TrEMBL record:
Protein name from the UniProt record: Adenosylmethionine-8-amino-7-oxononanoate aminotransferase
CDD domains on file: OAT_like (cd00610)
Subunit annotation: Homodimer.
HAMAP family (UniProt xref): BioA (MF_00834)
Organism classification: Bacteria, Pseudomonadati, Pseudomonadota, Gammaproteobacteria, Lysobacterales
EC id: 2.6.1.62
Length: 453
């Protein structure tokens, strides 16, 4: 990439002091750092004027476009009134109105809202709340959680404890709880001739066996509904969620739905759980909640859970969790405007049209000699690159084929940040079909270059 002196200077300043997330900083001796000056709809504009189509919604957060005027106006208006106030013993209109709106749009039965400030924090709240519920009910023996193989729920220690990403668990294992892992219903792992629904049923049978052995010590089962995102965009049939709800009821354990990445229209419905017509005991929300403007998360739960904590102070049953920025008025106001956009505009209908277009454009990759799978759920699509298509043998990780696609994307005006060798598409909902065409065209050429030699 050609750069200007001003860009080079900003990069030098960055690399002199900053430590970026999910990054081996040594990579930036060869991999470019990309300074961004502003955003415009689905595009990011660099300080040098170069434009990048944001194919990953800036880590899956930006659903209505960068510098969205409605969200920006709501933020500015709120900033002139109240920027923050302690949320213990105090309240304010944006937090109350947002809670009311979330209860209206989430699955029936979720009546209470607990705010935090990011997705990992929401998972921590749900885990602690589930454990503490059982403790308050006289079941202190329930201390464990069931998670799916290949799961990812965040990078704070509790969230990592219910994640199954080998790199993280290997590094931080001495600090983590040990989950009980249930086989993922990932349709990619289907036996020959087995449908996605049949995989779901088979995996439910294996989950039943785990619950028969461990339900007495289990607080909850935690899953990412329909798509295991950071675990490789693994996708599964809604029947698994239906069966999971029934098993949790039968064995008296909680169902935690991590909709942090898949919520707010990403899978084709406002929330992924809707596709199975189930209500979890806890629903964790973040990312798209504020349209990518500000950090905020929410955990929704039932009246039954809330009532297990409601007692005289002397009973010692209060839920013990807080963040300094809990219920931040700026974030709550922007989140409320995000929900207003869903109400005022045909977002979901348009997403379904965009998803159909994206599917048609990606379809030719199914015949690519180094593509093992092309999968899609709503506005999430993924292409799995492999060294051997017939055997589904992956490339050697050290070859970093996905990185080659990323670098090609930057050279040609597209932000595509693969998960290993899985190239995925999760664009903002304001993207046009022409912009999707650009994204796919760049990705296709990048894939050809990446797998050559």
């Amino acid at each position: 990439m050609n750069t200007s002196p001003a860009v080079d200077a900003l990069v030098r300043r960055d690399l002199s002091h900053l430590w970026h997330p999910c990054t081996q900083m040594h990579d930036h001796e060869t991999v470019p750092m990309v300074p961004i000056a502003r955003g415009d709809g689905a595009w990011l504009i660099g300080t040098d004027g170069r434009r990048y189509l944001d194919g990953i919604s800036s880590w899956w957060t930006n659903i209505f476009g960068h510098a969205n005027p409605r969200l920006a106006a709501a933020l500015a208006d709120q900033a002139r009134t109240l920027e923050h106030v302690i949320f213990a013993g105090f309240t304010h209109e944006p937090a109350v109105a947002l809670a009311e709106a979330l209860v209206r749009v989430t699955p029936p039965g979720l009546e209470r809202v607990f705010y935090a400030d990011n997705g990992s924090a929401a998972i921590e709240v749900a885990l602690k709340m589930s454990f503490h519920y059982w403790l308050n009910q006289g079941h202190g023996e329930k201390t464990r959680f069931i998670a799916l193989t290949g799961s990812y729920h965040g990078e704070t220690l509790g969230a990592l404890s219910v994640s199954d990403v080998a790199l993280y668990r290997k590094t931080y294992a001495p600090l983590l709880l040990t989950p009980i892992l249930a086989p993922s219903p990932d349709a990619y792992e289907a036996e020959p001739g087995e449908s996605a629904a049949e995989v779901a049923r088979r995996r439910l049978g294996e989950l039943r066996q785990l619950l028969e052995r461990h339900a007495h010590e289990v607080c909850a089962v935690i899953v990412e509904p329909l798509v295991q995102c950071a675990g490789g965009m693994r996708m599964y049939h809604p029947d698994y969620l239906t069966g999971l709800r029934a098993l949790c009821d039968e064995f008296k354990v909680h169902f935690i739905a991590d909709e942090i990445a898949v919520g707010f229209g990403r899978t084709g419905t406002l929330f992924a759980c809707e596709q199975a017509q189930v209500t979890p005991d806890f629903m964790c929300l973040s990312k798209g909640l504020t349209g990518g403007f500000l950090p905020l998360s929410a955990v929704l739960t039932t009246a039954a859970v809330y009532e297990a904590f409601y007692a005289e102070y002397s009973a010692g049953k209060a839920f013990l969790h807080s963040h300094s920025y809990t219920g931040n008025p700026l974030a709550c106001r922007v989140a409320l405007e995000t929900l207003n956009i869903f109400h005022d505009e045909p977002v979901l209908a348009r997403n379904r049209e965009l998803a159909v277009h994206l599917a048609a454009r990606l379809a030719p990759l199914r015949d690519h000699p180094h593509v093992a799978d092309v999968r899609q759920t709503g506005m999430i699509a993924a292409v799995e690159l492999v060294a051997d298509k017939a055997a589904r043998r992956p490339f050697t990780p050290g070859e970093r084929r996905g990185l080659r696609v990323y670098l090609h994307g930057l050279e040609h005006g597209a932000l595509l940040r693969p998960l290993g060798d899985i190239i995925y598409f999760m664009p903002p909902y304001v993207v046009t079909t022409q912009e999707l065409d650009h994204l796919v065209d760049v990705a296709m050429r990048g894939i050809d270059i990446a797998v050559a030699g």
